[in-house]
Design goal:
The complex is a heterodimer of chains A (about 180) and B (about 375). Chain A is mostly helical. Chain A has a single domain, classed as LemA-like domain (de novo design (two linked rop proteins), Up-down Bundle), CATH 1.20.1440.20. Chain A has 6 helices and no strands. Chain B is mainly alpha-helical and about 375 residues long. Chain B is about 60% helix and about 5% strand. Chain B has 11 helices and 4 strands; from the N terminus they run αααβαβββααααααα. Chain B is elongated. The N and C termini of chain B lie close together (about 10 Å). The chains are: A mainly alpha (about 180), B mainly alpha (about 375). Chains A and B meet through helix 1, helix 3 and helix 5 of A and helix 1 and helix 4 of B.
Chain lengths: ~180, ~375
Protein backbone atom coordinates (compact mmCIF):
# COMPACT_ATOMS: atom_id res chain seq x y z
CA UNK A 1 0.00 0.00 0.00
CA UNK A 2 2.72 2.41 1.08
CA UNK A 3 4.68 1.54 -2.05
CA UNK A 4 1.72 2.45 -4.24
CA UNK A 5 1.34 5.83 -2.57
CA UNK A 6 5.00 6.61 -3.11
CA UNK A 7 4.74 5.48 -6.73
CA UNK A 8 1.67 7.68 -7.28
CA UNK A 9 3.43 10.68 -5.74
CA UNK A 10 6.55 10.18 -7.85
CA UNK A 11 4.48 9.65 -10.98
CA UNK A 12 2.44 12.77 -10.25
CA UNK A 13 5.58 14.82 -9.65
CA UNK A 14 7.08 13.56 -12.92
CA UNK A 15 3.94 14.49 -14.90
CA UNK A 16 3.91 17.91 -13.26
CA UNK A 17 7.57 18.33 -14.21
CA UNK A 18 6.83 17.44 -17.83
CA UNK A 19 3.96 19.95 -17.92
CA UNK A 20 6.20 22.67 -16.48
CA UNK A 21 8.95 21.90 -18.98
CA UNK A 22 6.52 21.99 -21.89
CA UNK A 23 5.17 25.30 -20.61
CA UNK A 24 8.70 26.71 -20.62
CA UNK A 25 9.32 25.51 -24.17
CA UNK A 26 6.00 26.92 -25.40
CA UNK A 27 6.78 30.23 -23.72
CA UNK A 28 10.23 30.40 -25.31
CA UNK A 29 8.77 29.69 -28.73
CA UNK A 30 6.13 32.36 -28.23
CA UNK A 31 8.79 34.91 -27.38
CA UNK A 32 10.78 33.87 -30.46
CA UNK A 33 7.71 34.14 -32.64
CA UNK A 34 6.87 37.53 -31.14
CA UNK A 35 10.33 38.77 -32.06
CA UNK A 36 9.92 37.48 -35.63
CA UNK A 37 6.63 39.39 -35.89
CA UNK A 38 8.40 42.62 -34.97
CA UNK A 39 11.15 41.77 -37.44
CA UNK A 40 8.65 41.29 -40.27
CA UNK A 41 7.15 44.72 -39.63
CA UNK A 42 10.53 46.41 -39.28
CA UNK A 43 11.57 44.98 -42.67
CA UNK A 44 8.32 46.20 -44.18
CA UNK A 45 9.11 49.66 -42.87
CA UNK A 46 12.61 49.54 -44.35
CA UNK A 47 11.04 48.71 -47.72
CA UNK A 48 8.47 51.50 -47.52
CA UNK A 49 10.77 54.33 -46.49
CA UNK A 50 12.85 54.60 -49.71
CA UNK A 51 9.66 54.71 -51.81
CA UNK A 52 8.21 57.50 -49.72
CA UNK A 53 11.46 59.46 -49.69
CA UNK A 54 11.75 59.07 -53.46
CA UNK A 55 8.29 60.59 -54.05
CA UNK A 56 8.63 63.21 -51.33
CA UNK A 57 11.95 64.48 -52.71
CA UNK A 58 10.21 66.24 -55.59
CA UNK A 59 7.88 68.14 -53.25
CA UNK A 60 10.05 68.80 -50.22
CA UNK A 61 13.09 70.37 -51.81
CA UNK A 62 13.74 72.46 -48.71
CA UNK A 63 13.77 69.45 -46.42
CA UNK A 64 16.71 67.55 -47.87
CA UNK A 65 18.26 67.47 -44.39
CA UNK A 66 15.25 65.65 -42.87
CA UNK A 67 15.06 63.24 -45.78
CA UNK A 68 18.75 62.49 -45.39
CA UNK A 69 18.23 61.86 -41.67
CA UNK A 70 15.40 59.44 -42.44
CA UNK A 71 17.57 57.50 -44.86
CA UNK A 72 20.49 57.42 -42.43
CA UNK A 73 18.35 56.30 -39.51
CA UNK A 74 16.93 53.55 -41.69
CA UNK A 75 20.40 52.31 -42.63
CA UNK A 76 21.42 52.32 -38.97
CA UNK A 77 18.29 50.49 -37.84
CA UNK A 78 18.81 47.83 -40.50
CA UNK A 79 22.27 47.11 -39.12
CA UNK A 80 21.06 46.65 -35.52
CA UNK A 81 21.03 43.13 -34.11
CA UNK A 82 18.98 41.76 -31.20
CA UNK A 83 16.28 43.45 -29.07
CA UNK A 84 18.66 45.67 -27.07
CA UNK A 85 20.39 47.26 -30.08
CA UNK A 86 17.26 47.39 -32.17
CA UNK A 87 15.37 49.25 -29.44
CA UNK A 88 17.74 52.22 -29.68
CA UNK A 89 18.01 52.32 -33.47
CA UNK A 90 14.27 51.93 -33.99
CA UNK A 91 13.50 54.70 -31.52
CA UNK A 92 15.74 56.99 -33.53
CA UNK A 93 14.08 56.00 -36.81
CA UNK A 94 10.61 56.51 -35.30
CA UNK A 95 11.75 59.95 -34.20
CA UNK A 96 12.93 61.19 -37.58
CA UNK A 97 9.94 59.58 -39.29
CA UNK A 98 7.71 61.50 -36.93
CA UNK A 99 9.48 64.69 -37.87
CA UNK A 100 9.05 63.85 -41.54
CA UNK A 101 5.33 63.19 -41.09
CA UNK A 102 4.88 66.47 -39.27
CA UNK A 103 6.73 68.37 -41.98
CA UNK A 104 4.70 66.68 -44.70
CA UNK A 105 1.64 68.32 -43.13
CA UNK A 106 2.79 71.69 -44.42
CA UNK A 107 3.05 70.54 -48.04
CA UNK A 108 -0.50 70.44 -49.47
CA UNK A 109 0.80 69.29 -52.86
CA UNK A 110 2.48 66.34 -51.23
CA UNK A 111 -0.63 65.36 -49.30
CA UNK A 112 -2.74 65.64 -52.44
CA UNK A 113 -0.60 63.04 -54.20
CA UNK A 114 -2.47 59.72 -54.14
CA UNK A 115 0.73 57.66 -54.08
CA UNK A 116 1.95 59.61 -51.06
CA UNK A 117 -1.38 59.25 -49.26
CA UNK A 118 -1.27 55.49 -49.81
CA UNK A 119 2.35 55.26 -48.70
CA UNK A 120 1.60 57.37 -45.61
CA UNK A 121 -1.31 55.07 -44.66
CA UNK A 122 0.94 52.05 -45.23
CA UNK A 123 3.66 53.55 -43.09
CA UNK A 124 1.23 54.66 -40.35
CA UNK A 125 -0.18 51.16 -40.25
CA UNK A 126 3.31 49.66 -40.18
CA UNK A 127 4.28 51.97 -37.32
CA UNK A 128 1.16 50.81 -35.43
CA UNK A 129 1.94 47.19 -36.23
CA UNK A 130 5.45 47.62 -34.84
CA UNK A 131 3.99 49.13 -31.68
CA UNK A 132 1.44 46.31 -31.31
CA UNK A 133 3.96 43.60 -32.14
CA UNK A 134 6.27 45.10 -29.52
CA UNK A 135 3.40 45.15 -27.01
CA UNK A 136 2.68 41.49 -27.71
CA UNK A 137 6.38 40.61 -27.59
CA UNK A 138 6.81 42.35 -24.23
CA UNK A 139 3.72 40.59 -22.83
CA UNK A 140 5.14 37.24 -23.97
CA UNK A 141 8.53 38.09 -22.46
CA UNK A 142 6.91 38.99 -19.16
CA UNK A 143 4.96 35.73 -19.06
CA UNK A 144 8.08 33.72 -19.90
CA UNK A 145 10.31 35.61 -17.44
CA UNK A 146 7.73 34.98 -14.72
CA UNK A 147 7.90 31.28 -15.52
CA UNK A 148 11.68 31.31 -15.55
CA UNK A 149 11.92 33.10 -12.22
CA UNK A 150 9.01 31.65 -10.24
CA UNK A 151 9.10 28.55 -8.09
CA UNK A 152 8.94 25.65 -8.94
CA UNK A 153 9.55 26.22 -12.66
CA UNK A 154 12.74 28.13 -11.79
CA UNK A 155 14.36 24.76 -10.92
CA UNK A 156 13.68 23.38 -14.40
CA UNK A 157 14.59 26.68 -16.06
CA UNK A 158 17.99 26.62 -14.33
CA UNK A 159 18.60 22.97 -15.18
CA UNK A 160 17.75 23.37 -18.87
CA UNK A 161 19.14 26.90 -19.34
CA UNK A 162 15.92 28.79 -20.04
CA UNK A 163 17.23 32.31 -19.65
CA UNK A 164 15.16 35.43 -19.06
CA UNK A 165 14.53 37.38 -22.29
CA UNK A 166 15.19 41.04 -23.10
CA UNK A 167 12.27 43.44 -23.28
CA UNK A 168 11.91 45.61 -26.34
CA UNK A 169 12.06 48.93 -24.51
CA UNK A 170 13.09 52.42 -25.42
CA UNK A 171 15.95 53.88 -23.39
CA UNK A 172 15.09 56.99 -21.36
CA UNK A 173 17.61 59.13 -23.27
CA UNK A 174 15.68 58.57 -26.48
CA UNK A 175 12.38 59.61 -24.98
CA UNK A 176 11.83 63.21 -25.98
CA UNK A 177 9.14 64.89 -28.02
CA UNK A 178 9.96 65.48 -31.66
CA UNK A 179 10.87 69.09 -32.43
CA UNK A 180 9.12 70.41 -35.49
CA UNK A 181 10.57 73.42 -37.24
CA UNK A 182 8.05 74.79 -39.72
CA UNK A 183 10.00 77.98 -40.47
CA UNK B 1 -0.55 61.84 -19.07
CA UNK B 2 0.25 59.75 -22.11
CA UNK B 3 -3.17 58.13 -21.96
CA UNK B 4 -4.46 59.90 -25.05
CA UNK B 5 -1.99 62.18 -26.76
CA UNK B 6 -3.76 64.73 -28.91
CA UNK B 7 -2.54 65.13 -32.43
CA UNK B 8 -0.80 68.50 -32.75
CA UNK B 9 -2.01 68.97 -36.31
CA UNK B 10 -5.66 67.86 -36.26
CA UNK B 11 -6.49 67.62 -32.53
CA UNK B 12 -7.71 64.03 -32.57
CA UNK B 13 -7.04 61.95 -29.44
CA UNK B 14 -4.78 58.97 -30.14
CA UNK B 15 -3.93 55.73 -28.34
CA UNK B 16 -0.97 55.90 -26.02
CA UNK B 17 2.18 54.47 -27.51
CA UNK B 18 1.12 55.21 -31.04
CA UNK B 19 3.74 57.20 -32.89
CA UNK B 20 1.49 58.80 -35.48
CA UNK B 21 -1.97 60.27 -35.55
CA UNK B 22 -4.67 57.79 -36.48
CA UNK B 23 -6.53 60.31 -38.60
CA UNK B 24 -4.01 62.47 -40.37
CA UNK B 25 -0.79 60.51 -39.91
CA UNK B 26 0.96 63.44 -38.25
CA UNK B 27 3.61 62.78 -35.62
CA UNK B 28 2.48 62.80 -32.02
CA UNK B 29 4.41 64.46 -29.23
CA UNK B 30 4.25 61.15 -27.43
CA UNK B 31 5.91 59.39 -30.31
CA UNK B 32 8.90 58.29 -28.32
CA UNK B 33 7.27 57.62 -24.99
CA UNK B 34 7.36 53.95 -24.09
CA UNK B 35 4.24 51.93 -24.42
CA UNK B 36 2.36 51.57 -21.18
CA UNK B 37 3.38 47.95 -21.50
CA UNK B 38 2.79 45.50 -18.71
CA UNK B 39 6.47 45.04 -17.82
CA UNK B 40 7.04 48.71 -17.19
CA UNK B 41 3.83 48.95 -15.21
CA UNK B 42 4.63 45.97 -13.03
CA UNK B 43 7.80 47.47 -11.66
CA UNK B 44 6.95 51.11 -11.86
CA UNK B 45 3.52 52.25 -10.69
CA UNK B 46 4.20 55.73 -12.01
CA UNK B 47 4.49 54.49 -15.60
CA UNK B 48 1.86 56.03 -17.88
CA UNK B 49 -1.29 53.96 -17.84
CA UNK B 50 0.48 51.58 -15.46
CA UNK B 51 -2.45 50.69 -13.25
CA UNK B 52 -4.57 49.93 -16.28
CA UNK B 53 -2.04 47.76 -18.04
CA UNK B 54 -0.92 45.86 -14.98
CA UNK B 55 -4.01 44.63 -13.23
CA UNK B 56 -7.37 46.08 -14.04
CA UNK B 57 -8.39 44.49 -17.30
CA UNK B 58 -6.56 41.26 -16.60
CA UNK B 59 -8.51 40.96 -13.36
CA UNK B 60 -11.71 41.77 -15.21
CA UNK B 61 -10.93 39.10 -17.77
CA UNK B 62 -10.28 36.49 -15.08
CA UNK B 63 -13.49 37.25 -13.21
CA UNK B 64 -15.51 37.07 -16.40
CA UNK B 65 -13.91 33.78 -17.31
CA UNK B 66 -14.86 32.32 -13.91
CA UNK B 67 -18.43 33.59 -14.23
CA UNK B 68 -18.71 31.97 -17.63
CA UNK B 69 -17.58 28.60 -16.30
CA UNK B 70 -20.03 28.84 -13.41
CA UNK B 71 -22.87 29.58 -15.80
CA UNK B 72 -21.90 26.72 -18.09
CA UNK B 73 -21.87 24.33 -15.13
CA UNK B 74 -25.37 25.49 -14.18
CA UNK B 75 -26.42 24.84 -17.78
CA UNK B 76 -24.99 21.33 -17.79
CA UNK B 77 -26.68 20.58 -14.44
CA UNK B 78 -30.04 21.76 -15.81
CA UNK B 79 -29.61 19.57 -18.90
CA UNK B 80 -28.48 16.58 -16.83
CA UNK B 81 -31.38 16.90 -14.39
CA UNK B 82 -33.87 17.09 -17.22
CA UNK B 83 -32.35 14.00 -18.82
CA UNK B 84 -32.47 12.20 -15.47
CA UNK B 85 -36.11 13.03 -14.89
CA UNK B 86 -37.15 11.88 -18.35
CA UNK B 87 -35.21 8.62 -17.93
CA UNK B 88 -36.57 8.04 -14.43
CA UNK B 89 -40.16 8.61 -15.49
CA UNK B 90 -39.76 6.18 -18.38
CA UNK B 91 -38.21 3.58 -16.09
CA UNK B 92 -40.91 4.01 -13.44
CA UNK B 93 -43.60 3.57 -16.08
CA UNK B 94 -41.97 0.32 -17.21
CA UNK B 95 -41.56 -0.95 -13.62
CA UNK B 96 -45.13 0.00 -12.79
CA UNK B 97 -46.19 -2.29 -15.57
CA UNK B 98 -44.08 -5.12 -14.10
CA UNK B 99 -45.05 -4.36 -10.50
CA UNK B 100 -41.37 -4.06 -9.49
CA UNK B 101 -39.95 -1.74 -6.79
CA UNK B 102 -38.61 1.61 -7.93
CA UNK B 103 -36.27 4.13 -6.27
CA UNK B 104 -36.92 7.58 -7.76
CA UNK B 105 -33.56 8.97 -6.59
CA UNK B 106 -31.26 6.19 -7.80
CA UNK B 107 -32.90 5.25 -11.06
CA UNK B 108 -30.67 3.55 -13.61
CA UNK B 109 -32.97 4.82 -16.35
CA UNK B 110 -32.54 8.33 -14.99
CA UNK B 111 -28.77 8.09 -15.02
CA UNK B 112 -28.92 6.76 -18.57
CA UNK B 113 -31.19 9.67 -19.53
CA UNK B 114 -28.75 12.17 -18.07
CA UNK B 115 -25.84 10.51 -19.87
CA UNK B 116 -27.71 10.51 -23.19
CA UNK B 117 -28.54 14.19 -22.72
CA UNK B 118 -24.94 15.16 -22.04
CA UNK B 119 -23.62 12.98 -24.88
CA UNK B 120 -26.14 14.44 -27.33
CA UNK B 121 -25.13 17.95 -26.26
CA UNK B 122 -21.47 17.12 -26.82
CA UNK B 123 -22.06 15.52 -30.23
CA UNK B 124 -24.16 18.46 -31.40
CA UNK B 125 -21.42 20.81 -30.20
CA UNK B 126 -18.77 18.99 -32.23
CA UNK B 127 -20.90 19.21 -35.36
CA UNK B 128 -21.52 22.93 -34.87
CA UNK B 129 -17.85 23.62 -34.20
CA UNK B 130 -16.95 22.01 -37.49
CA UNK B 131 -19.53 23.67 -39.74
CA UNK B 132 -21.27 26.47 -37.85
CA UNK B 133 -19.14 29.49 -38.77
CA UNK B 134 -19.69 29.34 -42.51
CA UNK B 135 -23.38 30.03 -42.17
CA UNK B 136 -22.98 33.09 -39.98
CA UNK B 137 -21.33 35.38 -42.52
CA UNK B 138 -24.01 34.74 -45.11
CA UNK B 139 -26.80 35.11 -42.53
CA UNK B 140 -25.56 38.63 -41.82
CA UNK B 141 -25.18 39.49 -45.50
CA UNK B 142 -21.44 40.05 -45.08
CA UNK B 143 -19.22 40.04 -48.14
CA UNK B 144 -15.50 39.41 -47.95
CA UNK B 145 -13.38 42.30 -49.26
CA UNK B 146 -9.82 42.42 -50.53
CA UNK B 147 -7.02 44.59 -49.25
CA UNK B 148 -7.06 46.93 -52.26
CA UNK B 149 -10.78 47.65 -51.75
CA UNK B 150 -10.57 48.48 -48.02
CA UNK B 151 -6.93 49.11 -47.15
CA UNK B 152 -7.54 50.92 -43.86
CA UNK B 153 -9.92 48.27 -42.54
CA UNK B 154 -7.47 45.54 -43.54
CA UNK B 155 -4.64 47.39 -41.85
CA UNK B 156 -6.61 47.88 -38.64
CA UNK B 157 -7.64 44.22 -38.52
CA UNK B 158 -4.06 43.14 -39.11
CA UNK B 159 -2.79 45.50 -36.42
CA UNK B 160 -5.22 44.04 -33.90
CA UNK B 161 -4.33 40.49 -34.92
CA UNK B 162 -0.66 41.32 -34.31
CA UNK B 163 -1.50 42.83 -30.93
CA UNK B 164 -3.39 39.66 -30.02
CA UNK B 165 -0.72 37.40 -31.46
CA UNK B 166 -3.09 35.45 -33.72
CA UNK B 167 -3.44 34.96 -37.47
CA UNK B 168 -5.20 37.75 -39.34
CA UNK B 169 -8.92 37.03 -39.62
CA UNK B 170 -10.76 37.30 -42.91
CA UNK B 171 -12.25 40.75 -43.43
CA UNK B 172 -15.84 41.29 -44.54
CA UNK B 173 -18.10 44.29 -45.06
CA UNK B 174 -21.88 44.45 -44.60
CA UNK B 175 -23.66 46.82 -46.98
CA UNK B 176 -25.72 48.65 -44.41
CA UNK B 177 -25.69 52.26 -43.23
CA UNK B 178 -26.20 51.07 -39.63
CA UNK B 179 -23.26 51.13 -37.22
CA UNK B 180 -22.35 47.61 -36.17
CA UNK B 181 -19.72 44.89 -36.36
CA UNK B 182 -19.37 41.21 -35.51
CA UNK B 183 -16.88 38.38 -35.46
CA UNK B 184 -17.27 34.70 -36.20
CA UNK B 185 -15.06 31.62 -36.33
CA UNK B 186 -14.66 28.70 -34.00
CA UNK B 187 -10.87 28.88 -33.83
CA UNK B 188 -8.63 31.93 -33.41
CA UNK B 189 -6.65 30.92 -36.51
CA UNK B 190 -9.74 30.65 -38.70
CA UNK B 191 -11.98 33.59 -37.93
CA UNK B 192 -13.61 36.51 -39.69
CA UNK B 193 -14.43 40.08 -38.72
CA UNK B 194 -17.25 41.97 -40.41
CA UNK B 195 -18.17 45.64 -40.13
CA UNK B 196 -20.94 47.70 -41.72
CA UNK B 197 -20.35 50.43 -44.31
CA UNK B 198 -21.92 52.90 -41.91
CA UNK B 199 -19.34 52.03 -39.29
CA UNK B 200 -16.46 52.57 -41.71
CA UNK B 201 -17.82 55.99 -42.60
CA UNK B 202 -18.65 57.19 -39.09
CA UNK B 203 -15.67 56.16 -36.96
CA UNK B 204 -12.15 57.53 -36.81
CA UNK B 205 -9.25 55.17 -37.38
CA UNK B 206 -8.61 54.63 -33.67
CA UNK B 207 -12.32 54.09 -32.94
CA UNK B 208 -12.48 51.54 -35.75
CA UNK B 209 -9.45 49.94 -34.18
CA UNK B 210 -11.23 49.72 -30.81
CA UNK B 211 -14.29 48.09 -32.40
CA UNK B 212 -12.10 45.60 -34.26
CA UNK B 213 -10.24 45.05 -30.97
CA UNK B 214 -13.58 44.17 -29.32
CA UNK B 215 -14.32 41.67 -32.09
CA UNK B 216 -10.79 40.29 -31.83
CA UNK B 217 -11.52 39.91 -28.13
CA UNK B 218 -14.48 37.65 -28.96
CA UNK B 219 -12.18 35.61 -31.19
CA UNK B 220 -9.28 35.14 -28.77
CA UNK B 221 -11.52 34.62 -25.73
CA UNK B 222 -13.23 31.82 -27.69
CA UNK B 223 -16.59 33.51 -27.13
CA UNK B 224 -17.94 32.27 -30.41
CA UNK B 225 -17.20 28.70 -29.42
CA UNK B 226 -18.67 29.17 -25.93
CA UNK B 227 -21.69 30.91 -27.36
CA UNK B 228 -22.30 28.15 -29.87
CA UNK B 229 -21.90 25.40 -27.27
CA UNK B 230 -24.24 27.14 -24.84
CA UNK B 231 -26.73 27.86 -27.62
CA UNK B 232 -26.79 24.20 -28.53
CA UNK B 233 -27.51 23.16 -24.96
CA UNK B 234 -30.32 25.69 -24.75
CA UNK B 235 -31.78 24.27 -27.95
CA UNK B 236 -31.40 20.70 -26.75
CA UNK B 237 -33.01 21.41 -23.38
CA UNK B 238 -35.93 23.12 -25.09
CA UNK B 239 -36.30 20.19 -27.48
CA UNK B 240 -36.26 17.50 -24.78
CA UNK B 241 -38.51 19.48 -22.46
CA UNK B 242 -41.02 19.95 -25.24
CA UNK B 243 -40.85 16.26 -26.13
CA UNK B 244 -41.31 15.24 -22.49
CA UNK B 245 -44.40 17.42 -22.12
CA UNK B 246 -45.93 15.91 -25.26
CA UNK B 247 -45.27 12.34 -24.14
CA UNK B 248 -46.69 13.06 -20.71
CA UNK B 249 -49.87 14.48 -22.21
CA UNK B 250 -50.55 11.26 -24.12
CA UNK B 251 -48.84 8.58 -22.02
CA UNK B 252 -49.97 10.04 -18.71
CA UNK B 253 -53.64 9.98 -19.68
CA UNK B 254 -53.46 6.34 -20.77
CA UNK B 255 -51.76 4.95 -17.64
CA UNK B 256 -53.29 7.36 -15.15
CA UNK B 257 -55.05 4.58 -13.16
CA UNK B 258 -52.26 2.67 -11.41
CA UNK B 259 -49.70 5.36 -10.72
CA UNK B 260 -47.66 4.87 -7.56
CA UNK B 261 -46.61 7.56 -5.13
CA UNK B 262 -42.91 7.61 -6.21
CA UNK B 263 -43.53 7.89 -9.91
CA UNK B 264 -46.36 10.38 -9.36
CA UNK B 265 -43.98 12.72 -7.59
CA UNK B 266 -41.44 12.25 -10.38
CA UNK B 267 -44.08 13.00 -12.96
CA UNK B 268 -44.99 16.30 -11.29
CA UNK B 269 -41.31 17.15 -10.96
CA UNK B 270 -40.76 16.44 -14.65
CA UNK B 271 -43.70 18.58 -15.71
CA UNK B 272 -42.50 21.48 -13.58
CA UNK B 273 -38.97 21.02 -14.81
CA UNK B 274 -39.93 20.71 -18.46
CA UNK B 275 -41.70 24.03 -18.22
CA UNK B 276 -39.03 25.84 -16.22
CA UNK B 277 -35.80 24.37 -17.66
CA UNK B 278 -35.92 26.00 -21.12
CA UNK B 279 -36.66 29.35 -19.52
CA UNK B 280 -33.84 28.99 -17.01
CA UNK B 281 -31.43 27.83 -19.72
CA UNK B 282 -32.35 30.82 -21.84
CA UNK B 283 -31.74 33.20 -18.92
CA UNK B 284 -28.34 31.62 -18.30
CA UNK B 285 -27.45 31.87 -21.99
CA UNK B 286 -28.21 35.58 -22.01
CA UNK B 287 -26.27 36.10 -18.79
CA UNK B 288 -23.23 34.42 -20.38
CA UNK B 289 -23.62 36.55 -23.48
CA UNK B 290 -23.59 39.71 -21.36
CA UNK B 291 -20.53 38.56 -19.43
CA UNK B 292 -18.67 37.95 -22.67
CA UNK B 293 -19.46 41.46 -23.91
CA UNK B 294 -17.80 42.95 -20.85
CA UNK B 295 -14.84 40.64 -21.36
CA UNK B 296 -14.51 41.61 -25.04
CA UNK B 297 -14.56 45.29 -24.05
CA UNK B 298 -11.77 44.62 -21.55
CA UNK B 299 -9.81 42.73 -24.19
CA UNK B 300 -10.21 45.57 -26.69
CA UNK B 301 -8.60 47.87 -24.12
CA UNK B 302 -5.83 45.34 -23.51
CA UNK B 303 -5.06 45.21 -27.24
CA UNK B 304 -5.33 48.91 -28.04
CA UNK B 305 -4.28 50.25 -24.59
CA UNK B 306 -6.77 53.00 -25.33
CA UNK B 307 -10.09 53.01 -23.45
CA UNK B 308 -10.96 56.44 -24.92
CA UNK B 309 -11.27 55.08 -28.45
CA UNK B 310 -13.68 52.32 -27.38
CA UNK B 311 -15.70 54.76 -25.29
CA UNK B 312 -15.91 57.10 -28.29
CA UNK B 313 -16.91 54.26 -30.60
CA UNK B 314 -19.57 52.87 -28.25
CA UNK B 315 -21.02 56.33 -27.76
CA UNK B 316 -21.31 56.75 -31.53
CA UNK B 317 -22.83 53.28 -31.91
CA UNK B 318 -25.31 53.93 -29.12
CA UNK B 319 -26.20 57.36 -30.47
CA UNK B 320 -26.94 56.10 -33.96
CA UNK B 321 -30.57 55.38 -34.80
CA UNK B 322 -30.07 53.96 -38.27
CA UNK B 323 -31.91 50.61 -38.43
CA UNK B 324 -29.99 47.48 -39.37
CA UNK B 325 -31.86 45.84 -42.24
CA UNK B 326 -29.87 42.60 -42.55
CA UNK B 327 -30.01 41.71 -38.87
CA UNK B 328 -30.97 38.16 -37.99
CA UNK B 329 -32.13 37.12 -34.51
CA UNK B 330 -30.12 33.93 -34.64
CA UNK B 331 -26.84 35.82 -34.66
CA UNK B 332 -27.78 38.95 -32.69
CA UNK B 333 -25.46 38.01 -29.83
CA UNK B 334 -22.41 38.20 -32.11
CA UNK B 335 -22.67 41.93 -32.84
CA UNK B 336 -20.86 44.62 -30.86
CA UNK B 337 -24.17 46.28 -30.01
CA UNK B 338 -27.49 44.50 -30.34
CA UNK B 339 -28.88 45.29 -33.79
CA UNK B 340 -32.46 45.08 -32.48
CA UNK B 341 -33.38 48.39 -30.96
CA UNK B 342 -36.40 47.03 -29.11
CA UNK B 343 -34.10 44.77 -27.13
CA UNK B 344 -31.45 47.39 -26.74
CA UNK B 345 -34.00 49.76 -25.24
CA UNK B 346 -34.73 47.29 -22.46
CA UNK B 347 -31.18 46.04 -22.25
CA UNK B 348 -31.33 45.89 -18.48
CA UNK B 349 -33.73 42.98 -18.92
CA UNK B 350 -32.76 39.40 -18.09
CA UNK B 351 -33.27 38.28 -21.67
CA UNK B 352 -30.92 40.86 -23.24
CA UNK B 353 -27.90 39.59 -25.19
CA UNK B 354 -25.86 42.70 -24.40
CA UNK B 355 -25.42 44.69 -21.20
CA UNK B 356 -26.85 48.21 -21.30
CA UNK B 357 -24.45 50.56 -23.05
CA UNK B 358 -24.36 52.80 -19.99
CA UNK B 359 -23.03 49.92 -17.88
CA UNK B 360 -20.36 49.08 -20.45
CA UNK B 361 -19.29 52.72 -20.65
CA UNK B 362 -19.21 52.95 -16.84
CA UNK B 363 -16.87 49.94 -16.66
CA UNK B 364 -14.61 51.44 -19.33
CA UNK B 365 -14.47 54.74 -17.47
CA UNK B 366 -13.55 52.76 -14.36
CA UNK B 367 -10.71 51.04 -16.28
CA UNK B 368 -9.49 54.40 -17.45
CA UNK B 369 -9.34 55.94 -13.98
Amino acid sequence: MFGWIVLALVGGAALYGVALYNGLVAGRNQVGNGWKQIDVQLKRRYDLIPNLVEVAKDYMSYEQETLKQVVEARTMAMAARGPAQASVAEAQLSGVLGKFFALAESYPDLKANQTVTNLMEELTSTENKIAFARQHYNDSVMAQNNRVEQFPSVLLARAFAFGPHDYFTIPESEIQPVKVDLR
Amino acid sequence: MAAAPECPSCGVANPAGQAFCSRCGGALGAALRPLPAAPAAAGDPAAPGGALAATDFRGAARRNQQNTWRLIIIMVVIGGLLGYLVGAVIESAVRDGQGAAFDPFGSAGGLAGAAVMLAAGLAWTVVALAWGDRIVLSLAGAREVGEDAEPVLHHVVEEMAIAAGVAKPRVAVIDSPALNAFATGMRPDRSAVAVTRGLLAALTRSELQAVVGHEMGHVINLDIRYGTAVGIFVGLIALVADGALRILRFGGAARGRDRRRGSGLLMILLILFAILAPLAARLVQMAISRQREYLADATAVRLTRDPHALIGALEKLGGSSIPFGNANRAIQHLFIVNPFRDFAAAAGALMATHPPLAARLARLHALKG
